[in-house]
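Budget justification aside, the reviewers requested a transparent look at the raw inputs and outputs of the sequence design task funded under Objective 1. We therefore reproduce one unedited record. The lines immediately below are the structure tokens for a 191-residue chain.
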């Protein structure tokens, strides 16, 4: 497979880091993070130096272009960067504490957690506690860019949420009613 066969803006979104590769003594070793097991078959990707630069930039910067309304009502291109998406440690830990240090989607409390934007970051969802929920990497990655209402009907969520209590499932469903009140943030940047 060639690097050009991969949709670049999927890197850091749908396509995420799930392990690492080490090599030596004529052998390459593929190490998956524990929560992924070996569910992803490895595909060799042919890379040029320019491809590596593009991959590293996308992994580090994660620019996402979306259309938004300017103050005058015109549609404008909005470029959002990863640094605008990241939450502070204080916000992250407040979300983890609020969600009892477990994934709000599957209930797992034995894996590293991430914060997931209820209103998608790409749709202008701000990085504030009201718009974040604790999620394990697997649930966060599986949800990807799916809108929250769709996610609650997705077969994966329906399967993993069976481990949750009825109160936890209801709390997740209740969040849908709060989404309209979450302010949207758009940053217009020049390149």
């Amino acid at each position: 497979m060639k690097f050009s066969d991969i949709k670049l803006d999927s890197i850091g979104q749908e396509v995420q880091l799930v392990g690492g590769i080490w090599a030596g003594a004529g052998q390459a070793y593929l190490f998956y993070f524990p929560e992924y097991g070996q569910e992803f078959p490895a595909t060799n990707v042919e890379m040029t130096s320019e491809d590596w630069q593009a991959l590293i930039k996308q992994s580090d910067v994660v620019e996402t272009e979306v259309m938004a309304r300017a103050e005058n009502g015109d549609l404008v291109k909005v470029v959002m960067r990863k640094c605008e998406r990241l939450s502070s440690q204080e916000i992250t830990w407040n979300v983890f504490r609020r969600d009892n240090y477990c994934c709000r989607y599957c209930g797992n409390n034995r894996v590293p957690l991430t914060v997931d934007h209820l209103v998608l970051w790409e749709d202008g969802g701000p990085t504030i506690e009201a718009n974040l929920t604790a999620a394990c990497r697997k649930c966060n990655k599986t949800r990807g860019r799916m809108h929250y209402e769709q996610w609650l009907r997705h077969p994966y969520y329906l399967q993993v949420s069976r481990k949750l209590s009825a109160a936890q499932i209801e709390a997740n469903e209740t969040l849908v009613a709060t989404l309209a009140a979450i302010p949207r943030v758009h940053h217009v940047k020049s390149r």
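The mean pLDDT is 81. The longest helix spans residues 49-61. Computational costs for records of this kind are itemized in the attached budget.
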